């Protein structure tokens, strides 16, 4: 069943989100502070039974100089410089196994799959927080300086910085992508690093927070609504903090060619929140609305369309 507005209403919907006046100043200073730390990129080869790809365990410095982990997959024997894909995973997940997510490297890209700090993987978050609802969405939500997605979005921008330093990677051809939380992180990265080459935001989480808190009936958004049910006097402050992290704000600043997707039966990310970001996106854009899909938002068919769409941008020589 539909979980939100019908398709015609979604095309008409506009978010009432407004960015705070110092949104850009906040993020400029945050990224400048992070970039004071050396990237400290290190690659360790990983032995696998794969015959067509080489895999490396990557470490680089993110927010606060904290070490982040990622997989780097490269097509074996490819002659560089290669275009690169930076991928972020879903909420509470991880970079997974070295043998997973082989599509992008198999298609001829350098593929950096980032392990989001403090979630289900191998990258810790050394920064503590105040009271939070179980999960990650309200961690550090007392202020914009302590909110967990300040660190995560900064890590993501640094991941782009890191992949651009790798031998055999063309720094001008770097795209960002992900599903759910990964799509939201990718969208934020496109807003923070304006010269990324392309974006795929598949059912992006972390957009249009206020509406999501009212119509999102499943986790993770229910974490926010339940936190506010306990902290009734914190509602104005919480949404002031979240205004610095809303995907709608980043979308209005991003200019890379973008592919969005939404499943109209998605109970996790309300489709209207995706449309809210899409409608203000500044760059060339497309949105695939999948009427009978849920949170997978078209799944492999959506990825195939993006592979085809990315090719003329990231492989302009037809290679």
Automatic annotation (TrEMBL):
InterPro entries: AB_hydrolase_fold (IPR029058), AXE1_dom (IPR008391), CE7 (IPR039069)
Any single GO BP term: polysaccharide metabolic process
Catalytic site: 180 (nucleophile), 266 (charge relay system), 295 (charge relay system)
Residues in Acetyl xylan esterase domain copies: 2-300
UniProt superkingdom: Bacteria
PANTHER family associated with the record: CEPHALOSPORIN-C DEACETYLASE (PTHR40111)
Pfam families per UniProt: AXE1
Gene Ontology MF terms in the entry: carboxylic ester hydrolase activity
Stated name of the protein: Acetyl xylan esterase domain-containing protein
Residues involved in substrate binding: 91
């Amino acid at each position: 069943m539909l979980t939100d507005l019908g398709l015609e209403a979604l095309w008409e919907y506009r978010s009432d989100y407004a960015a705070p006046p110092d949104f850009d100043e906040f993020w400029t200073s945050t990224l400048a502070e992070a970039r004071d730390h050396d990237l400290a990129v290190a690659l360790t080869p990983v032995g696998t039974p794969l015959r067509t790809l080489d895999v490396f365990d990557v470490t680089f410095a993110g927010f606060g100089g904290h070490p982040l982990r990622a997989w780097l997959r490269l097509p074996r024997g490819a002659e560089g410089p290669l275009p690169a894909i930076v991928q972020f995973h879903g909420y509470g997940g991880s970079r997974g196994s070295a043998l997973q997510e082989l599509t992008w490297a198999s298609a001829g890209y350098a593929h950096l799959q980032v392990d989001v700090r403090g979630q289900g993987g191998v990258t810790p978050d050394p920064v503590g927080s105040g009271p939070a609802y179980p999960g990650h969405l309200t961690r550090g939500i007392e202020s914009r300086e302590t909110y967990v997605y300040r660190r995560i979005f900064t890590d993501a921008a640094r991941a782009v910085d890191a992949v651009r330093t790798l031998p055999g990677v063309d720094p001008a051809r770097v795209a960002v992508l992900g599903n759910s939380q990964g799509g939201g992180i990718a969208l934020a990265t496109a807003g923070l690093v304006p010269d990324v080459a392309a974006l795929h935001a598949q059912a992006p989480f972390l957009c249009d927070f206020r509406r999501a808190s009212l119509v999102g009936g499943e986790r993770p958004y229910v974490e926010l609504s339940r936190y506010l049910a306990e902290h009734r006097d914190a509602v104005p402050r919480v949404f002031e903090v979240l205004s610095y992290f809303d995907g709608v704000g980043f979308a209005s600043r991003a200019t890379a060619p973008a592919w969005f997707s939404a499943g109209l039966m998605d109970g996790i990310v309300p489709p209207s929140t995706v449309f809210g970001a899409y409608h203000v996106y500044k760059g060339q854009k497309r949105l695939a609305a999948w009427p009978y899909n849920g949170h997978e938002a078209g799944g492999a068919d959506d990825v195939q369309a993006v592979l085809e769409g990315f090719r003329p941008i990231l492989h302009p020589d037809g290679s």
